[in-house]
Amino acid sequence: MRTIVIKLFLCATLVNVAVADGKKVFETYCWGCHHQTAVAFGPPFSEIASKRSAEEIRAMIADPASVSKVFGYKRNAMPAFKLTPEELKEITAYILSYKPKEKSH
What we know:
By secondary structure, the chain is an all-alpha fold. Helices cover 62% and strands 0% of the residues. It has helices at 2-30, 45-51, 54-62, 64-71, 85-96. The chain has a single domain (2-96), classed as Cytochrome c-like domain (Cytochrome Bc1 Complex, Chain D, domain 2, Orthogonal Bundle). Helix 1 crosses helix 5 (85-96), helix 3 crosses helix 4 (64-71) and helix 3 (54-62) crosses helix 5 (85-96). The longest helix has 29 residues, at 2-30. The relative contact order is 0.18.
């Protein structure tokens, strides 16, 4: 039981670190067009997180022109970013941290 608690704690800590590092990536690359919960030039992270999977988010950041076509958008204004795999993981975790919480009945 103690081992399970320790593993859960470590996982939660790693997720929090990824989210914190993702905020740094956001501040470097994304803040000009996206806000966390308000509409700016691009959609807010809360909207993106409610509609897209982690894989779709990573693909859109890495190759927005191609993914926009797959999603059925008529145009794409988002530039492609050359992020490291770690930065891509971090910004994805940060975006998904804004996913609306499920309401229990």
